Amino acid sequence: MNLDKRKDWDTYFMDIAYMVSTRSRCSRRHVGSVLVQGKKLLGTAYNGAPSGVPDCSEAGCMIAEEYELVTENGQEERMIKKQRCVRTIHAEQNLLLFTDRIDREGSSVYVTDEPCWTCANMLANSGITLIVYHRPYPKDSAKVKAMMDQKGIMFRQLEGYCPPPETVQKVQD
């Protein structure tokens, strides 16, 4: 590795988010998030069961199925099925639980995965001004992007990014 070439800040913080994700014991998806104020790291979190409660690797996944009517091309409607684990607290939710509101004002969140609708709602009300993610979450993407635009929160995918090899997990949907 060339020590003269430093990683840019986006890559640096996304690498940290991926390293944090390795703490997750979720069998479906490891997600990590970090809170950054300027260039200062203020907090990290990953997805998992509440502290002291058996996680999915110990007690099995608790999958809930939901159906949502989506409109495409302004007129076509179709029903999509979404599955989510109700045992797991998402990385973004844990990040908000374990950081202070005053630290979040004007801060950035780096998260391995595009936030779901629920997490996007929480982040939109948290005081942060930038969300950077790597892996897309197409099931909620359009409405999340629309809300972020409405709120004036910068929201972008880190394209061309390659996570550290030791952090890559096979994603199950």
Automatic annotation (TrEMBL):
Q: Which residues form a coiled coil?
A: none
Give GO terms for biological process: pyrimidine nucleotide metabolic process
Q: Which InterPro entries does the entry mention?
A: APOBEC/CMP_deaminase_Zn-bd, CMP_dCMP_dom, Cytidine_deaminase-like, dCMP_deaminase, dCMP_deaminase-rel, Deoxycytidylate_deaminase_dom
Keywords attached to this Swiss-Prot or TrEMBL record, sorted alphabetically, are: Hydrolase, Metal-binding, Zinc
Residues that, per the record, bind Zn(2+): H90, C116, C119
List the GO molecular function terms. dCMP deaminase activity; zinc ion binding
Superkingdom to which the source organism belongs: Bacteria
SUPFAM superfamilies xref list:
Cytidine deaminase-like
Please name the CDD domains in this protein's record. Answer: deoxycytidylate_deaminase
The family annotation for this protein states: Belongs to the cytidine and deoxycytidylate deaminase family.
Which PANTHER family does the annotation name?
Answer: DEOXYCYTIDYLATE DEAMINASE, DEOXYCYTIDYLATE DEAMINASE-RELATED
The protein depicted here goes by the name CMP deaminase
Species of the source: Paenibacillus zeisoli
